[in-house]
Amino acid sequence: MLLFYLQKLENETDRILFASIYEKYQQKMFWLAYRYLQNEALAEECVNDAFLELIKSFETFVKINSEKQPYYLFTITERCAFRKYRHEKKQVELKMAHTELYSEDFSTTKDVMLSFGMTMQKLPEKYQHPLLLRYAQDQTYEEIASILGISVSNARQRVKRARDRLAMILQEESQDG
């Protein structure tokens, strides 16, 4: 795997520095990720992602005080582990919800889905898309911003407003019904 990373770096000095960092911290980063994820494969993926992220910001990393560099690496690793943990947790929840949906009476499930779809249609289109991208497709705010051609802060704001409006609509419907 180290060779793969080294190919991504432009000069020999960076390659030598990266190789020493990789050898020194790879195992520590793995155990840090494993502590959160409790899964070797996910921990390895997380370390790989962290090193790829490091390569992207290697020029900045080199400028950081050498005493702070390990903290930078561990922060990248922790963030990656948290993202993977949340993603795995969502996948388990979705599987459980999927199982529950199909274990219930089909007509009830169909009614619920139709009702939710009709409720979503009550939202303005500019709020429907960000909400669906965030929760149905598990996109990050950065990905939503890129897809919709808006800023990241605007993507966050639209998702928040969509949730608020959806909650308000559902509350009104529950009071009416």
| Biggest sheet descriptor | none
Total domain units: 2
Strand content: under 5%
Name of the CATH first level of the largest domain? Mainly Alpha
Task: Please count the helical segments.
Answer: 9
Structural class: mainly alpha
- Fraction in helix: over 70%
CATH topology of the largest domain: Rna Polymerase Sigma Factor, Chain: A
Form type:
elongated
**Distance N terminus to C terminus?**
59 Å
Radius of gyration: 22 Å
Unreliable stretches (pLDDT < 50, length at least 5) are 104-109
Written overview of the protein:
The protein is mainly α and 177 residues long. The protein has 2 domains: 2-88, RNA polymerase sigma factor, region 2, helix turn helix motif (Rna Polymerase Sigma Factor, Chain: A, Orthogonal Bundle), CATH 1.10.1740.10; 105-176, Arc Repressor Mutant, subunit A, CATH 1.10.10.10. The protein contains 9 helices and no strands. It has helices at residues 2-8, 12-37, 40-56, 58-63, 69-103, 106-121, 125-135, 141-148, 152-176. Helix 3 (40-56) crosses helix 5 (69-103). It is elongated, with a radius of gyration of 22 Å. The N and C termini lie far apart (59 Å).
